[in-house]
Amino acid sequence: MKKIILSIDGMTCSACSNGLEKYLNKQNGIISVNVNLVMANAFIEYDEKILTKEKIEELIKKAGFKSLGEFKEIKIEQQNTKNKIIFIIYTILAIILMYISMGNMWNMPMIKFIDINQNPINYSIVLFVFSIVFIIYGFDILKNGYKNLIHKTPNMDTLVGLGVLSSFLYSIYNMFLIFKGNYAVIHNLYFETSSMVIYFVKLGRYLDGITKDKTKEAIQKLVKITPEKAVIKINGEEKVVTIDEVKKGNIIISKPGEKISVDGKIIFGNAHFDESFITGESKPINKTVGQKVIAGSINYDGYIEYEAEKIGKESTISEIIKLVVEASNAKPPIARIADIVSSYFVPTVIGIAIITFIFYLILGYDFSTSLTTFITILVVACPCSLGLATPLAIVVSEGLCASKGILIKKGEVLENVQNVDTIVFDKTGTLTYGTLKIAEIKNYSNIQNQELLQIIGSIESNSNHPIAKTFIEYLENNKINKLEVKDFENFTGLGLVGKINNKKYIIGNSKILSRYNIENIYINEENELSKKGNSIIYLATENRIIALIGINDVEKKEAKDVIKKLEENKINVIMLTGDNDKTAKKIAYNLGIKNVIANVLPNQKANIIKELKMKNKYVIMCGDGINDSPALVTANIGISVNTGTDIAMDSSDVILIKNDLISLIELINISKQTIKIIKQNLFWAFFYNILMIPISMGLLNCVGIHINPMIASLAMVLSSLTVILNTLRLKNINSL
Predict the structure, then answer these.
(1) Which of 157, 263, 426, 653 is catalytic?
(2) CA-to-CA distance for 228 and 488, rounded, in angstroms?
(3) Contact at 8 Å (CB) between 226 and 317?
(4) pLDDT digits (tens, 9 = 90+) for 491-548
(5) How far does the chain reach from its first CA to its final CA, in angstroms?
(6) What is the DSSP letter of 40?
(7) Which DSSP category does 184 fall into?
(8) What's the mean pLDDT in 347-364?
(9) The CATH number of the domain where 418 resides is what?
(10) What is the pLDDT of residue 648?
(11) Using 50, 70 and 90 to split pLDDT, how confident is the model at 336?
(12) Number of structural domains found in the chain
């Protein structure tokens, strides 16, 4: 099985995307297809033993569309100056056309040469020329409508095309009658109708194009993260190359202020890096030889050389973009409602229009009135809003999630997250930071806390002990310089000793105090910190203790508030951890978690998730994505936190790359709001057609309510704008 994403040209409505999807799914070798109208692409899984990319593109061509090749990046094709000028010109022409055709109705002054009453022949010729100009403008609509009708996948263009050509051809017939002297049919010319229908459809697409571009901006920002060029080192010399020229194993140079070009490993130097676009951590991270660097991260202050390891589609940022695009293509169950309706809607509308036309003739209406009604039904029922209702909301939400560091790997997640009633959290690395942090400082001196930590960090920098890393990272993260240490000594199992500014400092556990005959008068304080699960570090001079430092795997600062918000929304929270019961309950108590299950192995976690699901609980498992993999896969939705650069390897459905549990709250809220917006969009789309089709059929003529094709095309644009504006409200989502 192989996957491919192809960019598709020629889709204008949900009937297009749905028709192409149905056609491809019927082909031998195609496993599954998801066509995205807003993103204008198709995510295809196929058997490479039966099909190739070229054969799939041939199938797409047979279906009446065109493949623009394999998806490489999200392109935002802003309306350029040329397109704007063309649209402005046709807007002016549309105004002139309406003035010529309807000026007399409004008693406006008219030019005698083209006056409908004084020169009907000239009048009809001018309208004919205008309509030819507009048909050229909308030729793509007519062409697509014809192709889709031939391929038995009629769409919005088919409806518009039938309406435009019907009015245009009928007007030509009446124009010839006028040439023969039958001026009575002058009011049966509908050249302006065919022209204005095309204009309003183009107006709708122009506005849709601008809106769709905006929905992609958050995703497209990811594409711009990586630089276009890199400086590689060859035989000691620097050479500037494009990103595409970089190969695995190349040695790349990065200087202060530059972005990292590709994922790699530092082989020389050290520097602080801004990786906030991946991790959400605003503080620069210090990295040195042997550590990984991520493409797009910014080198703040050092010269480094690094070896290229992941290039092109293998890079972390490419994996993120791929996940976002694939998730945007995947359809949530609610989207299938619109797909099912769209597949039957266009043929049904054509049938209704034909039946109404025939029925009008049978009732004795003239051909002109019957044809106008036929055209109005076709135009007013164009399913633009129905086609935008779901995919536009999904793309906006996916972009919103991506901008907040939430990567969704499956399309149905956005719909299903709102159903959660139970969230199971792993402890280490999920509710806590997963690394030792300075939890508490008891200072018994006149020295400021920061200076105390500077002393400890400076001495600990000479040690490789895990606890030493805690203090070293503190200095790096807070940009605190290390002090010069002399006469350093390391006493295994006890602690460290060193001189700073000719003053001797002793660091370690309580045992090191006995070695230097220092009286421990803070045993009660030590016990107090120990009961909280801390490891204790003493800082002393030669004759007295000056501080106690509690080191612990501390809870994430936002965890307590997140738990509180979840429970306020009637979501049951459970801590599931392999740690001992005492430590787990301490953390749970601090965070306000009432349900704790401790001392469990990874496979036992999966069994517990199964038991919850058997009780009809809809379960989200939130873990670190490594030892929690069995539970993540077993849960209804698996959410992993801080998977870093191993995004492609992750077994979860959602990745919170910011390592911030607030993202979980945002995900739930985005899910709820997205489904709410989609339901509203579908309601307005269906309501519009349910309301407008009977009006266009003339069923409300008896109460003075009726419309013509031009009003119908304008109403079609307004219905799409309603859906668009409603969807864009997603960008203003508040907290849960």
Answers:
(1) 426
(2) 48
(3) yes
(4) 877 889 999 999 999 998 888 998 899 999 999 988 888 777 677 899 999 889 999 9
(5) 40
(6) T
(7) G
(8) 92
(9) 3.40.50.1000
(10) 43
(11) low
(12) 4
Give helix 335-362 / helix 367-380 axis angle, nearest 10°: 180
The percent of residues above 70 in pLDDT, for the chain, comes to: 84
The DSSP annotation for 505-569 comes to EEEE-HHHHHHTT-----HHHHHHHHHTT-EEEEEE-SS-EEEEEEEE-PBPTTHHHHHHHHHHT
Q: Is 659 left (phi over 0), alpha (psi -120 to 50) or beta?
A: left
DSSP letter for 599, please.
Answer: S
Residue 333: pLDDT band by 50, 70, 90 thresholds? low
Instruction: Name the region of 610 (left: φ>0; alpha: ψ -120 to 50; beta: rest).
Output: alpha
Percent of the chain with pLDDT over 90: 26
Residue 187 lies in a domain: no
- Say whether pLDDT at 614 is over 90: yes
CA distance 335 to 194: 33
The amino acid present at 577, given as its one-letter code, is: T
Q: Are 540 and 494 in contact (CB under 8 A)?
A: no
Q: What's the pLDDT at 245?
A: 84
The predicted structure's pLDDT at residue 72: 59
Q: Cα-atom radius of gyration of the chain, to the nearest Å? A: 34
Torsion sign across C-alpha atoms 365, 368, 371, 376: negative
Is position 140 annotated as part of the catalytic site?
A: no
> Residue 55 maps to which CATH number?
3.30.70.100
Which two structure tokens, joined as six digits, stand for 269? 């130097």
Whether 189 maps to a domain, the answer reads no
Whether the full predicted model's pTM is greater than 0.70, yes or no, is no
Domain that holds residue 247: 229-314
Residue 597 confidence (pLDDT) above 80: yes
Higher pLDDT, 219 or 460: 460
Strands of 419-485, DSSP E: 422-425, 437-443
A 10 A CB-CB count for 238 gives: 10
Residue 636's φ and ψ, nearest 5 degrees, are: -60, -40
Tell me: pLDDT of 165 over 60. yes
Taking the C-alpha atoms of residue 650 and residue 646, their distance in angstroms, rounded to an integer, is 7
**Side-chain half-sphere exposure of 620, counting CA atoms within 13 A:** 26
Measure the CA–CA gap between 67 and 462, rounded to whole angstroms: 61
Residue that is written with structure tokens 């001189």 in the block? 499
The answer to whether 389 touches 721, Cβ cutoff 8 Å, is no
**Residues 251 and 277 both lie in one domain:** yes
Do the Cβ atoms of 485 and 502 come closer than 8 Å? no
- Are 699 and 181 in contact by the 8 Å Cβ rule? The answer is no
Q: 532 — phi, psi (to 5°)?
A: -85, 5
Element (H, E) at 575: strand 572-576
Q: How far apart are CA 615 and CA 627, in angstroms?
A: 25
Average pLDDT, stretch 226-245? 85
pLDDT of residue 383: 62
The chain-wide mean pLDDT, for the chain, equals 82
Separation between Cα atoms, residue 426 and residue 593, nearest integer Å: 12
Average pLDDT over residues 65-94: 75
- Quote the tokens at residue 340: 């099912």
**Number of residues in the chain:** 736
In a domain? residue 61: yes
Whether 358 is in a domain gets the answer no
Query: By three-state DSSP, how is residue 707 classified?
Result: coil
Three-state SS at 664: helix
pLDDT of residue 76: 46
Structure tokens at 429: 């690395």
Residue that wins the pLDDT comparison between 700 and 735: 700
CATH assignment at residue 310? 2.70.150.10
